[in-house]
Design goal:
The protein is α+β, with helices and mostly antiparallel strands. The chain has 18 helices and twelve strands. Helices cover 53% and strands 10% of the residues.
């Protein structure tokens, strides 16, 4: 019925489909304000498609019906929370679903961590987090070196030349993630280029064919996807074999997994997820941070002053990062203003209540993070890029509650924060970052929010 329009549904819609595929959902009506099904078979899918993205659909829905809304995905009930106050109320013994892990592992048919023993899943998650922490510590100098290489590249350009920001940030993120996750074999640019080709082929299919099975119907696309996946898995197995039981100068992410009690398949899955999600989150956090700085001279100058005061002429160190308080505020405000990940999901495993309404068991509950991040009751002048707002402890608490700071932030975002801090410490002390006049930036809301088209900037050398 809606096969012709399925391709317009974004990654976040795929997340909903993945969750509802993995878990049964309630068909019971809840009495929560919202939409009745537009179509008997597809529910409110036509409305989501007409809105261009799930995020934009939720923005309109919450504006019309309030902070607690419901709609139908197919014949299944979905509830969306659109305010931080309601989020605080929604404290239930539910299973938190990482949107990257849920969607990616479903598409890749990696199911081993989505079901099974809770204790084993917790142990595996802790191992994953420790792997990110250790690899950042061990590869700090590497990230600084890659940042310096990007600086040298930008310094070599004529001042008036437009810099393709998205392209350069994705390349920088690819090098950072592959070498931090898998080691020195990715110091060879040819290996990074090969990895990027396979990564792009896999990622391009994540937004296609999951709901309507179109990937299985198009043999050319299916072969390209399967070949890319097979090549990436082959690379990861090769790295696993090369590093098992051996000692290297730099500890990388996969080394931590090898030290745990994981099967080869689990190591493959976790390295694949970190590689895919880590690249996308890091690239887009860096892209948006630099882009917002180009359009805010005062913020850029304040950041420069902090870098100069804390770091002087010397390089950034792991110990000094905590002193870069304003830089952290810039990155937090980047996440908020860009709505970096606009939706999260949680399965209501037991019946719960929010704002005097009952949420039936096995209902999918969406956290409309993009709506909450622009809520003027929580963020005064919410559409303004203003890192100073995070001088207030309440603002940082709100961001932590949404999962973008503190103990709730995902490992991939923690990695991205560190990499972006190092990159900004290198770029801002040497360059002025300028916008391209007349450029209109449109946003694409997927699992991670990104510019719809290439973001162009210019740079000039600081005297």
């Amino acid at each position: 019925m809606l096969d012709f329009a399925i391709f317009a549904v974004t990654f976040l819609l795929i997340l909903v489909g993945a969750v509802l595929y993995l878990y049964p959902a309630s068909r019971q009506a809840s009495g929560i304000p919202g939409l009745t099904p537009t179509d008997e078979k597809d529910g409110n899918l036509p409305d989501i498609i007409a809105s261009s993205s799930l995020h934009e659909f939720l923005v309109n829905l919450h504006e019309k019906y309030g902070p607690l809304v419901s709609f139908w995905f197919g014949r299944r009930l979905v509830v969306s929370l659109g305010s931080i106050d309601l989020l605080k109320q929604h404290i239930n013994p539910n299973r938190l679903l990482d949107p990257f892990e849920t969607m990616l592992k479903s598409l890749l048919r990696y199911q081993s961590s989505l079901n099974g023993d809770t204790g084993e899943s917790h142990m595996r998650r802790k191992l994953y987090e420790n792997g990110v922490t250790k690899s950042l510590q061990s590869n700090f100098a590497l990230i600084q070196k890659l940042s310096e290489e990007l600086l040298a590249k930008w310094l070599s350009l004529p001042e008036a030349q437009h810099v393709p920001l998205c392209q350069h940030m994705l390349g920088f993120a690819m090098k950072s993630v592959t070498q931090t996750a898998m080691g020195s074999s990715f110091e060879d640019d040819r290996e990074v280029i090969r990895f990027r080709r396979h990564h792009d082929a896999i990622w391009s299919e994540i937004g296609k064919g999951f709901l309507d099975g179109s990937l299985d119907k198009n043999m050319t696309r299916k072969k390209l996807y399967e070949d890319a996946l097979m090549e990436m898995e082959s690379t990861l197995r090769k790295v696993t074999k090369e590093r098992r039981g051996k000692s290297f100068n730099r500890h990388v992410f996969i080394d931590t997994l090898l030290q745990g009690n994981l099967s080869d398949q689990q190591i493959l899955e976790d390295t694949m997820i970190f590689s895919l999600a880590g690249c996308i989150i890091t690239a887009n956090l860096c892209t948006w941070a630099v882009y917002f700085l180009t359009n805010s001279e005062d913020v850029q100058q304040n950041l420069y002053k902090e870098m100069d005061r804390v770091l002087g002429k010397g390089p950034i160190t792991h110990e000094k990062i905590k002193q870069l308080r304003y830089c952290r505020q810039v990155l937090c405000e980047t996440v908020r203003t860009a709505k970096l990940t606009p939706v999260a999901a949680q399965l209501q495993e037991l019946e719960g209540r929010v704002d005097q309404h009952t949420i039936p068991k096995e209902t999918l509950v969406l956290y409309a993070l993009g709506v909450m991040l622009q809520d003027s009751s929580s963020w005064p002048s919410s559409y303004k890029f203003d890192p100073e707002r995070f001088n207030e402890e309440s603002a940082m608490k709100n961001l932590s509650l949404l999962g973008f700071s503190g103990s709730q932030e995902c490992p991939e975002l923690r990695f991205a924060y560190m990499v972006a801090t190092v990159l900004l410490s290198v770029l801002v002390r040497k360059l002025y970052l300028h916008p391209v006049k007349g450029q209109v930036m449109e946003t694409k809301y997927e699992l991670v929010t990104s510019p719809k088209e290439e973001a162009w900037i210019t740079v000039s050398k600081r005297s």
